[in-house]
Amino acid sequence: MSQQEKIMEEFRSVFNKLVWLNRGEMEEALKGHKSSEVHCIEYIGKHVDPNVTRLAEAFYMTRGAISKITKKLLDKGLIESYQSSENKKEIYFRLTPEGRNVFEIHENLHRSFRERDDVVFEKVSAEQYASMSRFLDAYNRHLDAEIDKQGIMLQDRPNPE
């Protein structure tokens, strides 16, 4: 196995273990909410003037798929839509108090997972962090370039749900 294959296998393994380890607690605390809905709430809670287009780009989903998710969130009373006084055409989203509650539950879960894993991260040196960050940034830029090179439009990308 090449070093590249080994690293990719380790990425998959770490990701799969995190999903498996965190899933039960997430599902229990966020009953009645799909993962895509919770991550949409997270994005809306962390960004200024989020709209369907920005959400679609962030999640590599179609605007149609995001519209379905935001409609469910609107129906559940977790988000509300609004228009800017400068742009009456564009519709943006913000969290309702109920949506803010889901956002906080999700944030607290992630905080507890980070605290659980601090035992590993506290041993990582600044140089190691910088090296990992450079690698991930370079790999991310490469993947963005490949997406652009292939001319994959958002509406053509697979929906991860």
Write the layout of secondary structure elements.
Elements: H1 3-29, H2 35-46, H3 52-59, H4 63-75, E1 79-82, E2 92-95, H5 97-121, H6 126-150
Antiparallel strand pairs: 1-2
Helix pairs in contact: 1-5, 2-4, 2-5, 3-4
What would your notes on this structure say?
The chain is mainly alpha-helical and 161 residues long. It has two domains: 1-31; 34-156, Winged helix-like DNA-binding domain superfamily/Winged helix DNA-binding domain (Arc Repressor Mutant, subunit A), CATH 1.10.10. Helix content is 68%, strand content 5%. The chain is built from six helices and two strands. It has helices at residues 3-29, 35-46, 52-59, 63-75, 97-121, 126-150; strands at 79-82, 92-95. A two-stranded antiparallel ribbon has the order 1-2. Helix 1 packs across helix 5 (97-121). The longest helix is centred in the N-terminal third of the chain and has 27 residues, at 3-29. The two termini are 31 Å apart. The mean pLDDT is 91.
Comma- or semicolon-separated keywords:
two-stranded antiparallel ribbon, 2 strands, Arc Repressor Mutant, subunit A, globular, 2 domains, 161 residues
The description of the largest β-sheet is: 2 strands, antiparallel
SS class: mainly alpha
CATH architecture of the largest domain: Orthogonal Bundle
Q: How would you spell out the order of helices and strands?
A: HHHHEEHH
Number of helices: 6
Main CATH class of the largest domain = Mainly Alpha
Number of structurally distinct domains: 2
| Low-confidence region ranges | none
Helix content: 55-70%
Please give the order of strands in the largest beta sheet: 1-2
CATH homology group of the largest domain: Winged helix-like DNA-binding domain superfamily/Winged helix DNA-binding domain
Relative strand content: under 5%
Instruction: Please tally the β strands and state the result.
Output: 2
Give the CA-based shape: globular
The radius of gyration is 18 Å
Give the termini separation. 31 Å
Mean pLDDT metric: 91
CATH fold name of the largest domain: Arc Repressor Mutant, subunit A
